[in-house]
Amino acid sequence: MPSEISYKADFSEIRYAQCWEDADILLNALDIQPGDICLSIASAGDNTLAMLSQSPARVIAVDINPAQIACLELRVAAYRELSHPELLVLIGSLPGDGAYRNSLYHRCRPQLSTVTRQFWDNRSTAIAQGIGTAGKFERYLRLFRSMLPLIHNQDIITEAITEKTEAERHIFYQQHWNNNRWQLFFKIFFSQFILGRLGRHPSFFEYAQKNVAEHLLQRTAYAMTTINPCDNPYLQWIATGQHLTALPYALRPENFEIIRANLDRLEWHCTAIEDLLKNLDCDFINKYNLSNIFEYMSNQNYETLLRKLIRVGKSSARLAYWNLLVKRSRPEDMKNLLYSLTLEATRLYQQDKAFFYSSFILEEII
Length: 366
Known about the structure:
- This protein has 366 residues and is an alpha/beta fold.
- The protein has helices at 23-30, 46-52, 66-81, 84-91, 98-108, 114-121, 124-129, 136-147, 154-160, 166-177, 180-189, 192-199, 212-225, 233-240, 253-261, 273-278, 299-312, 342-349, and strands at 37-41, 58-63, 266-270, 285-289, 313-323, 338-340, 359-365.
- It is 47% helix and 11% strand.
- It comes from Dulcicalothrix desertica PCC 7102.
């Protein structure tokens, strides 16, 4: 059974060259234990790799998009072949010239499957710019970044991500950042029309229940004030195109060696998650990283998939996922199957550095 979204969107290109969900709250929520078997939406690979840092017995990554599997596979090769600083240069977290990045890629290349090797061989420009820049969404953010100096000068942009107390951040945001030009520019650039054509696929908004620009503007204000930008790799990348003083979990130096040591516990499948689940035994999975896949399907299909996930999940297995513009959480008629860990999810959501989501959902199989 193909996934609903497979009928609507083109999956020949990279949509996300980085994971835009906060692995810190994901790992806190899932509480992965040694011996656990985990199922993870592959996306660009960062959060799937982050799960390896907890030494589970097995991580099964799945994605319907072969381009996203290619992102994961190249990251795995980079963890095997490169040093930590070299990995950061290949991603684009650290500056580096194109020739150097291409030389790093060629060191990783023998580790790749034939299909993935061909995929990246045809994208030398993306490699030269840093593989973390290669997605449609990241190109959209780069366009935003190129236009930001029309709203604020470079000194103000730099000041926005420098160390301040929370009180100072609120004052700065109101007095120096949140002017009429910013609000107008933001609402146009992140309108559903522009975002659907340049950043995400228009079909991803089919079930949207919020005004996307208004929601994102409120969440951006939260990220610039309540959450410290100095500790936020996602905000730093949006503003500068690099990770200046903070890295996502999988790219931090203290996590590099343990992820590398556990790479043999990872497998990946390019298929619809529904098809993968058909081939898994009951009572098999302990932890689920489901990204925000339910955003892209009808409520009926969401509930159908949720039951399939429950079937292969063990008792007390945890499911973690995000809502952006579509409200998805355990339906009432499944309360005997799933327990909603609402207080824990809300606490973690308040810490979410990937700030644009509207909620974080954590549920446990009864």
